[in-house]
Amino acid sequence: MDEISITPCPATARNDAPVLYKFVAGKAMEINMKEFELKYGCNPNQKPSKIYMEDGSELPIEILNGRPGFINFLDAFNSWQLVKEIKDILGMPAATSFKHVSPTSAAVGVKLPESLKKACFVDDIDDLDDSPLACAYARARGTDRMSSFGDWIALSDECDATTAKLVAREVSDGIIAPGYSDEALEILKGKRNGNYNIVKIDANYVPAVQEKKQVFGITFEQGRNNFRIDEELLSNMVTDNKELPEEAKRDLIIALITLKYTQSNSVCYAYDGQAIGVGAGQQSRIHCTRLAGTKADTWHLRQHPKVLNLPFRDDIRRPDRDNVIDGYINKNEEDVCAEGIWQKYFKTQPEPLTDKEAREYLDGITGVSVGSDAFFPFSDNIERARKSGVSYIAEPGGSIRDDVVIDCCNKYGIAMAFTGMRLFHH
Predict the structure, then answer these.
(1) Quick one: average pLDDT of 405-409?
(2) 3-state secondary structure of 209
(3) Catalytic center residues
(4) Phi/psi class of residue 271: alpha, beta or left (left: φ > 0; alpha: ψ in -120 to 50)?
(5) Looking at the predicted structure, is the pLDDT value of residue 116 above 80?
(6) What is the value of pTM for the model shown?
(7) Would you say residue 11 has pLDDT above 60?
(8) Going by C-beta distance under 8 Å and a sequence separation of 6 or more, which residues neighbour residue 244?
(9) Band of residue 119 on the pLDDT scale cut at 50, 70, 90
(10) Rounded CA gap, 93 and 106, in Å?
(11) What is the predicted pLDDT for the residue at 333?
(12) Can you tell me the mean pLDDT for 342-351?
């Protein structure tokens, strides 16, 4: 592959030193890059905008395709930390879907049961089970499909062709991974008329111990949150039920690491190797628990036989199908089963999913795990979590009403660990 030195342009280095490029499919791709000029910041009026290393060193990334923006990079660098940490702790390939600097889900490479494959619209991928990374991505992207519309994807491992095929058919802004197979890269570069954002990150990059940010011209500095979330963190069981199965430990670790990179306040429900409901950025803890619980309930109900067998029209688009399913389950703004409306989406008029049917289905679910980025101040959070099949909880503890929260867990036989560590993220 040819290499050539080119004088820096706006999207290159901060100084006048030449920047090394390589040509990939006829396009010049930077190898060493100290600065990248962005189209604008959070909003179009916020110019100029760029990313760079404060110490003048090279950025730990290569932009293989597209031109990511300010929010894209915020999502990319936060999401990469999440999947890297899950992989480091659990030793399993991990994937996440990010929107506006919070994850919609995160998952590890556990094979999907057939009902979940169908609910995630990946039942047509014959070799899905052969790729743990593709399984992780299918789970993460399939958790909260409405929130993941136009997401940023992060993968802990080199992107393979199976995973790339799944990504290719979703509406997404971009992806970050430590590498891409040749076939995967070719597939991804075909998205968005060849403008899909593809970022490769140096898996060995370690940031400085101290980090800084500015607000209103004032600089804040703090130590990076390098707190390790592992099985040992779950050892302080404060409830009568002190049994944590290995699957619950895995799910609680996924939930807590997910929260570490979620805008606070936040609560996360997890099950079967993935986050199934994230309640992010709420001022009230119970609102986080309700929001995440509703998302978790929707994830479960998407596997209800009535939902799996909805008679969709052949010409319905994937995003429209997602919206219709959410409306069918949650009885949203449009009654998708009503006369004059169902014809837009279905071949035949479907029977509604009644509240009674939904409640009976959800009442049969147990084994769900919940993590919270700060203590539960009242027992109402436990009452709400129980309605979504929660059997295991991990939270910092430290409330003056810890005893009330513990008593509520004991009433339902829920096992709860106090981690002693808050996980606020802003």
Answers:
(1) 98
(2) coil
(3) 99-100, 265, 426
(4) beta
(5) yes
(6) 0.92
(7) no
(8) 234, 237, 252, 392, 415, 417
(9) very high
(10) 11
(11) 85
(12) 97
Beta carbons of 98 and 235 less than 8 angstroms apart: no
Q: What is the DSSP letter of 28?
A: E
pLDDT in tens, 322-331: 999 999 999 9
- What CA–CA distance (Å, rounded) separates 399 from 403? 9
Contacts from 341-345 at CB under 8 Å and sequence distance 24+?
Answer: 345/312, 345/313, 345/316, 345/320, 345/321
Percent of the chain residues past pLDDT 90, beyond the cut: 91
161-168 vs 132-143: helix axis angle to the nearest 10?
20
Cβ atoms of 395 and 375 closer than 8 Å: yes
What phi, psi does 415 have (nearest 5°)?
A: -90, 130
Strand partners, 417: 237, 394
Cα dihedral 326, 329, 331, 336 sign:
positive
| DSSP-derived 3-state class of residue 380 | helix
Specify the amino acid at residue 238.
Answer: V
> At 310, which amino acid appears?
L
Q: Is the pLDDT of residue 124 over 50?
A: yes
Predicted pLDDT at 253: 98
Structure token digits, residue 51:
């990313």
Give the tens place of pLDDT for each residue, 126-182: 999 999 999 999 999 999 999 999 999 999 999 999 999 999 999 999 999 999 999
Longest CA–CA span in the chain (Å) reads 69
Judge residue 265's burial from the number of C-beta atoms within 10 Å of its C-beta, 0-12 exposed, 13-18 middle, 19 or more buried. buried
Query: Tokens for 276?
Result: 């199934």
Question: Is residue 275 within a helix (H) or strand (E), and if so which, with residue range?
Answer: strand 274-280
| pLDDT value at residue 29 | 53
CB 396 within 8 A of CB 375: yes
- Tokens 């980090």 belong to 211
Is the Cα torsion angle 270, 271, 275, 280 positive or negative in sign? negative
On whether the CB atoms of residues 408 and 379 are closer than 8 A, the answer is yes
Alpha carbons 2 and 15: distance in angstroms, whole number: 24
Cα angle, residue 133 at apex, residues 247 and 30 outer, rounded to 5°: 140
Rounded to the nearest integer, the mean pLDDT of the chain is: 93
Count Cβ atoms within 10 A of the Cβ of residue 176 and give its class: 0-12 exposed, 13-18 middle, 19 or more buried. buried
3-state class (DSSP) for residue 190: coil
- Beta strand pairing call for 390-395 and 415-418: parallel
Query: b or e along 333-343 (b: 16 or more beta carbons within 10 Å of the residue's beta carbon)?
Result: eeebbeeeebe
How would residue 8 be classed by pLDDT, with cut points 50, 70 and 90?
very low
